Here is the input.
Amino acid sequence: MGGSGRIAVVDDEESIRQTVGLALRREGYEVTTWEDGEAAWDAFRQKLPDLVVLDILMPRMDGLELCRRIRGVSQSLPVIFLTSKDEEFDRVLGLELGADDYLCKPFSMRELVARVRVLFRRRALGKEPSAPAQVLVAGDLTLDLDRFEAAWKGNPLPLTVTEFRILHALARHPGRVKTRQQLVAEGYPEDTYVSERTVDTHVKRLRKKLVTADAEFDALETVYGLGYKWR
Here is the structure.
């Protein structure tokens, strides 16, 4: 099934821009490429794309700064980071800034396309009318499982796809401890390997967003040596 949507690919390596652009265009997406963050940001200030595939290390403006600026104007625009395997610190920082996902170089085009489809599907489900939604209510938390939308005490929570999946895994079994390995499987069902440190980063972001929504929030508990649970 072909895709639709405007994707920006930002990477200083011409070969990656060409390869990724070709693969996504074959799937039906409209693709624009940029060789550095500053050029991309100049274009984004005029009109945002529907999704961004973003390298971390680039001249003029790196991917972390570009992601920070994107999040300053849109909390929902999907961002996928492209990173080298030895850039774990930058990769974790990118997730803390609000990236939805990441891929380590070298990566398969099939996997990238799969990640893109997941993020576009989430956006589509959030816009189109449908049958009565599947909703999980856990105390003051509400999760719309069809639209990947979350709310705390009725107020929307701007979550990434992975944050939503992890929160759902915890909230649907209150009191049950979920190990980091289990949360990796829930948060990254399409991936073959994600470090447990990545789960910690997502949980840290979840806590920050929930505490921002409610200063007295304390339902997400760390069980040291095991993982996390929802109280």
In short: Residues 13 and 86 are 17 Å apart (CA to CA). DSSP finds eight helices and twelve strands in the chain.
